[in-house]
Amino acid sequence: MKMNCIAIACLAIAGAAACVTLFGAEPVFSAEFLANELLQTSAAMGAMLPGLPRPRGIVAVRADASGDIKALLGDLNKDFETFKATMSEKDREMAKKFDDVVTTEKLERVNSSVSELQAAVDQANAQLAAMSVGAGGEHAVKDKEYTEAFRAHFSKGEVQAALNKGADDEGGYLAPVEWDRTITDALVEVSPMRQIAQIQNISTAGFKKLFNNRGMGSGWVGETAARPQTNTPDFSSLTFTPGEIYANPAATQQMLDDAEVNLEAWMAGEVETEFSYQEGLAFVAGDGVNKPRGFLTYVDAGASDGHHPWGNIPTIDAAAAAAIDPDELFDMIYSLPGEYTSAARFVMNRTSQGTVRKLKDGQGNYLWQPSFAAGQPATLAAYPITEMPAMPDVAAGAIPIAFGDFRRGYLIVDRVGVRVLRDPYTNKPYVHFYTTKRVGGGVQDPTVMRLLKMAAV
């Protein structure tokens, strides 16, 4: 039965393509669309037949369908109203010391639906924000000769003189400016930290930043009184050293020879998937060993304990191990100096959002509110929320929520240049494209951030 369904799907795709050819009309289905349909079919085969490998490489080209954000917002707010009504029903049950399992299941289901719809809105907002700064847009080719030479090397293995200026001692070549920019833009679009943190491009092995520890002396004097020398402010330095992140996508040589898909888009997609996942983990919880230092490690007994000259990020201790009190969120907000709250935001994962969505203030108003317009994120106590999948869940001893001005507080350091090594030998008949980029990161100002730490037991 399973194989019959798969066969029917494949025949449907092939039939659609044949119809286009027979009738000679303008192609309705692009090569990318057909590749995506075949990918989904092969993925279905992998799911139903575990022995089959998961598809990778150039066959993983996918078309990103942009949904109607207005419809998403309408569904989100409709579901949130249902959530509030169900939550009120559950509160009445609990007041009567009665727990209806049907109501509980409905509440969990609608809460999950709200989370999924808000995540879809956040993704659409990220794409809009990325487009506003140039990500994903069309760019004129700045170095046509090198780009064409690299494309020939990419697909056929040809080495032309134009590639010499991009060669390094290990035999890799710098990706063309357009590819490098496409990969970087894609990372901005999918990486939550790259959307909210400060990014510094460097061309050296590291980036050193000076910190003014203040200490400047002053005093009041009379008109003719002596003016003794005052204290001079102290300075401390902190070095941000990039680690190396890599991806190693593969395609068969025949696929490269016959490909009608956009190779640049495929490469950007492959690298984006690998880099964004690894970066997301490192920016949150990286230990600084060949990788960025995550902001959650700037705590007592953390991997970056005492690393910053200004100390660790202040923490708010939760009273419980698995529950969050609304007052603890307000403690995070009001413990932050007022000059930093205008650009502050909450950071947490989707599960934690599902938890805080149930919290109310003293007047019975929900602290969490959904997006009401395109480009607007969900809010908690009127502050925007950034969903960060790498953040831990609410659990004993965990730090599930962060709050603060991340643009001022966290620095991402990009060593300019993506390098690609074409490897047709290691895993014949596949051609691997060993792609590397040097990325660092760390907290540059711990005073503008706050962390919520759950009780140990």
Question: What order do the helices and strands come in, and which of them pair?
Answer:
Layout: H1 2-23, H2 31-48, H3 69-95, H4 101-132, H5 144-156, E1 173-174, H6 177-190, H7 192-196, E2 198-202, E3 207-212, E4 235-240, E5 243-247, E6 250-252, H8 253-258, H9 263-285, E7 315-317, H10 326-334, E8 345-348, H11 350-356, E9 368-369, E10 379-380, E11 383-387, E12 401-404, H12 406-409, E13 410-423, E14 430-443, E15 449-453
Parallel strand pairs: 2-13, 7-15, 8-11
Antiparallel strand pairs: 1-13, 3-4, 5-14, 6-14, 8-12, 9-10, 10-11, 12-15, 13-14
Helix pairs in contact: 1-2, 3-4, 4-6, 4-11, 6-9
Summarize the entry for a quick read.
This protein has 457 residues and is of the alpha+beta class. Helices cover 39% and strands 18% of the residues.
Would you kindly provide a written description of the structure presented here, covering whatever features stand out?
With 457 residues, the protein is an alpha+beta fold. It is built from 12 helices and 15 strands. The chain has helices spanning 2-23, 31-48, 69-95, 101-132, 144-156, 177-190, 192-196, 253-258, 263-285, 326-334, 350-356, 406-409; strands at residues 173-174, 198-202, 207-212, 235-240, 243-247, 250-252, 315-317, 345-348, 368-369, 379-380, 383-387, 401-404, 410-423, 430-443, 449-453. 29% of the residues are buried.
